[in-house]
Specification:
2 copies of one chain form a homodimer. By secondary structure, the first copy, chain A, is mainly alpha-helical. In chain A, 59% of the residues lie in helices and 12% in strands. In chain A, α1 runs antiparallel to α4 and α2 crosses α4. At the A-B interface, α1, α2, α5 and α6 of A face α1, α2, α5 and α6 of B. Chain A binds a DNA duplex (30 and 30 nucleotides) through α3 and α4.
DNA sequence: TCCATATTTCCAGACTTATAGAATTATTGT
DNA sequence: ACAATAATTCTATAAGTCTGGAAATATGGA
């Protein structure tokens, strides 16, 4: 991942409406949400929301797909993960003491795949 | 962590000079680097750099400490980690399939503490 | 006190972002 | 073709950011 792409993603998320949109779309994976409904749920005018969705799309964090009259937006979790990876490796490279507690913190919600016996 | 604080941190890192500063300071932990040297190494005028350092400081990502005539800046890795945790739990809550590969990706560089026998 | 060093604050200009009204485009049904 | 629905683009305004020259502030040494 290029640092230019990371900056684009960080800038996209560094705005409260857009952070809310991204969280909403993550919570609605894998179904996605039409643009109008996003605007309604977050109480933002449709055209303003359209501008925000365009920023998130350019940043690669969401992807639009037309379905009949609606345009369904979905979070691109792969892209988000690669941004997070860049950030953490940047920080972690040579400094395990930083990421180890983060992994410890994350593991309870994301258990590494195990054979089902416990 | 408040989402307001996260937005501040994301905005601070969403700028190439500041991302470079943060990376530099992470690589120079725990010694830190004086403001003037940061400016020199990144080829940015001192007053411009001062503005960027102020943004990073307000965001909680770095901390200044005066030592004689110099002001030494250090990365605040704890704060950075709590930003990363917020972002990933936001994404991860209920969706282990997102963070599991990230943990897998991170683990080689940040081995969980083990008794020394390997 | 006077000077040099290190950094910040003040200020202004250029640029970018956030917002939303009005108009436009795309799709579907009658 | 016409109307209704869904979303975007056009446009303008207000607000915020980035940059760096000039001035100001803090520190330490002679």
């Amino acid at each position: 991942m290029e640092s230019e792409a990371v900056i684009l993603a960080l800038a996209a998320l560094a705005q409260s409406t857009r952070l809310d949109v991204f969280r909403l779309l993550v919570s609605r994976e894998p179904t996605g949400v039409p643009a109008g409904e996003i605007a309604r749920e977050l109480a933002v005018p449709a055209n303003t929301m359209s501008a925000h969705l365009s920023v998130l799309t350019r940043a690669g964090l969401v992807r639009p797909e037309r379905r009949s009259r609606s345009i369904i937006y979905r979070a691109d979790l792969e892209h988000f993960r690669s941004v997070a990876t860049f950030l953490l490796k940047d920080c972690c490279g040579g400094r395990p003491e930083v990421c180890a507690p983060l992994i410890a913190d994350l593991t309870p919600c994301c258990p590494p795949k195990e054979p089902a016996h416990g």
